[in-house]
């Protein structure tokens, strides 16, 4: 019974992600589907230089912990807690207040982690896709981190509420534990 419920939960989550993604699809004049917020970009593009399509199998053994991504002065923190073999609970963390500002669940899809996060402060929903690339395929050198990592990890964020918001940058795991020092006085908080 418990397995059936968990299976149904997983299908509902995947269905929600697929519906949200496909609801933004549009048909071009040549009859093919396209998505304004997810245009295909190859290596060398100044905005998104990542070689989409060259991602490798995600290293699930190294997923749990606190992660950071930053681009253009914007820094986002996430906690990833592995709950099943290929499923994680994701929390977006506000570094200044130590509050959880967004939550979602990530599942494996095509060698990536795909999640839909609901930010409770801004009332915004966005897709978070996490990719792993081999170092030799990465257009940027890997960011040094405190935790051993064999791959370059990239987060791609697409807002479902605003079509102009897209964010793609390296992610770095800053701790393999779910504890994090943040806020005034660097208080240690468990996520």
How would you portray this structure in words?
The protein has 191 residues and is mainly beta. The chain is built from one helix and twelve strands. An eight-stranded antiparallel barrel has the order 3-4-5-6-7-8-9-10. The two termini are 29 Å apart.
**Total E-strand runs:** 12
Radius of gyration over all CA atoms, rounded = 17 Å
The side-by-side strand order for the widest beta sheet comes to 3-4-5-6-7-8-9-10
In the predicted model, the low-confidence regions spanning at least 5 consecutive residues are 20-47
In helices, the fraction of residues equals 10-25%
How far is the first residue's CA from the last residue's CA?
A: 29 Å
For the residues shown, what is the average pLDDT? 75
The profile of the biggest β sheet is: 8 strands, antiparallel, barrel
Topology order in helix (H) and strand (E) letters: HEEEEEEEEEEEE
Number of helices: 1
Given helix and strand content, the structural type is mainly beta
DSSP strand (E) fraction? 35-45%
Could you give a quick summary of the protein structure above?
The protein is mainly β and 191 residues long. It has one helix at residues 2-23, and strands at residues 25-27, 33-35, 65-71, 74-84, 87-93, 100-109, 112-119, 124-133, 152-159, 166-175, 179-182, 187-190.
